[in-house]
Amino acid sequence: MTDAVVQKKSFNSKARIILISLSILLAALLLVSFFAIFFTLSYNKTHKGVFINGIDVGKMSYEEIYNRLNSNYTEKLKDTKIVLKKGDISEEFSLSQINVQYNIEEAAQKALEVGRKGNVFQRLSSIISAKRKGLNIDLSYSFDSNSVKNIIDSFYSKTLNPVKETDISIEESKVILQIGRPGESIDTEKAQEIIENSIKTCTGGTFEIPSVTIMPKSVDADEIYNKIVSEPVNAKATVENNKVVVTPHIRGRKIDKSELLKILSENQDKTGAEITLPVTFEEPEIDTAKANSMLFKDKLSTASTHFSTSGTNNYNRGINISIAASKINGKILAPGEVFSFNEVVGPRTVQNGYKTAAEYVNGKIVDGIGGGVCQVSSTLYNAVLFADLETVYRQNHMFSVSYLPLGRDAAVSYNDLDFKFKNNTNWPIKIESSVKNNTITFTIHGTQEQPGKTVELSHVQISYTPAPVQYIDDPSLPEGQTVVVQSGHSGYVVDTYKTVKINGNVVSKTKLHRSTYATYKTIIKRGTKKAAPTVAPTSQPESEPVSPPSIEVVDETLIQ
User: Which of 94, 219, 235, 275 could form a disulfide with 249 if both were Cys (CB 3.0 to 4.6 A apart)?
Assistant: First the structure.
């Protein structure tokens, strides 16, 4: 055997040994790796390199993580205080005051899930990545956003130096231009950011909040001009709780617009400067003193009607008239205000002192509580007409009345029929009433805006229908004797006109309305009892004049 052969056999033997050794080593390594992977994947705590909010929670169980986070966060809430500061002003609060809550359970669960999701390779990859690079899990939290907003708003209000816009100050005899200046406030977004960072890390502290400058708006010359310029406003009178209140006059103002623009341009950079503007003032036609002097200075009208108090019915009517008139006495109406008779006088009841008297109801004359009140409304209506006030609603009676000309009455019935008129003047009016010597009088005081003005009333009769007469035979009365048991009313249709004159010259003639009055029959009893026969005298005496049959009126009640 040659040396070459021997050397070759020796080399092969060594190679075989090396190969076997490498195989054994590889198998050992694979076995070790298998056991390493097995133990790594079977590990029941967190893996190395896992952090929560920067806190190392590697190699910890769920309970250990929970206790660690609970100690670092939840248990510190009450003692962790935040102080917002700006200069000498501060706002302090604790995290518990804003109801901060940390989701520790969720964070601990996420930490334990690292390396436990996916296939073997994905799990090993995440474990290795955490170990090499580190893995941080954010601890989620919640808080009461409204409470935080209120805290920031409170601090904002305390520290706010408000911006002052360019504006004008109007005084009694001058107008001052006030140039604006910047304002200053805290940066609310930065304050919100600081608070949320403190919540996230559960760390308190004192934080200086930066300021934000608030610049005034650009000056609107037209807006300034329109604020200055105004027409004079007359003093005016209103009525509150039946008392006159005079609103003071306002002087008018004027300024040259080009001059105003020049002043604004020259002074726009003079922060906080005050400049008296060249404004011209104009007095109104009616100032406050004049307005007070004009109140109720004129008697606009007066109207009166008479009534009887003889007999029980008329006596009661007089009482009713006095009560209703007293409710109206002193009533003041503001310009444009509407007077309602039923609202002012109120219900006509026994409790309010009213008596029973005859009145028109549903086409009949009957006794009712408050009979006679229509004479009050009708008399007032005439005063309203003579004062040239605006009638809003008026209705005539069903039958004619005796105390006023046709077409000048105004019927009322509580809850059913009202009389309304409007103060169509520019000043308050006052209504005065009096009941004396069987006469009711209304006087309206106000301000005569057209001196020399007078009002005349007239009517045109369109038709006339005499009252029908009904006779009732009465055998208890002597033949030829009659007794009136019901006085009747004739029927009319009339148009009423109002003529307005200024210093005797007619300026208008207006038809006010048409009034229709129904007939009301007269009822008369006539006797049918025959006289006893008498024996003819032996000598014919000289004849004597025969008297006309007598008529006895048993009902002459005055209906008003």
Answer: 235
Query: In the structure encoding, which two tokens stand for residue 60, read together?
Result: 């910890």
**Which residue, of 89, 112, 138, is where some domain finishes?**
138
Furthest-apart CA atoms within the chain: distance in Å: 224
Quickly count: other Cβ atoms within 10 Å of residue 460's Cβ: 13
Q: How far apart are CA 103 and CA 88, in angstroms?
A: 37
User: What does DSSP assign to residue 216?
Assistant: P
Residues 420 and 343 placed together within one structural domain of the fold: yes
Q: What Å distances lie between residue 17 and 14, 202, 468, CA to CA? A: 5, 65, 159
Question: pTM (2 decimals)?
Answer: 0.63
Phi, psi of 137 (to 5 degrees): -105, 130
Cα separation, 70 vs 63, whole angstroms: 10
Q: Per-residue pLDDT for 531 more than 90? A: no
Domain count, the chain: 3
DSSP per-residue letters across 366-411: EEEETTTHHHHHHHHHHHHHHTTPEEEE----SS--SSS-TT----
Both 504 and 371 in a single domain?
Answer: yes
Same domain, yes or no: 387 and 515: yes
pLDDT in tens, 449-503: 999 999 999 999 999 999 999 999 889 889 889 999 888 899 999 999 999 999 9
Residue 204 domain-assigned (yes or no): yes
How many CB atoms sit inside 10 A of residue 180's CB? 19
d(CA 267, CA 256): 17
Give the residue from 235, 251, 239 showing the smallest Cα distance to 291: 235
Q: What DSSP assignment string belongs to 37-75?
A: HHHHHH--SPPTTEEETTEE-TT--HHHHHHHHHHHTGG
- Please check whether residue 306 is in contact with residue 438, taking contact to mean a CB–CB distance below 8 angstroms: yes
**What angle do the packed helices 104-113 and 62-72 form, to 10 degrees?**
140
Question: Considering the domain boundaries, does residue 386 fall inside one?
Answer: yes
In a domain, 288, yes or no: no
For residues 112 and 169, membership in a common domain is answered with no
Q: Phi and psi dihedrals of 59, rounded to 5?
A: 60, 35
Strands 551-553 and 252-254: unpaired
Question: How far, CA to CA in Å, does 420 sit from each of 97, 312, 326, 339, 342?
Answer: 65, 31, 18, 5, 9
Backbone torsion region of residue 361, taken as left when φ is above 0, otherwise alpha when ψ lies between -120 and 50, otherwise beta: beta
Domain housing 485: 296-529
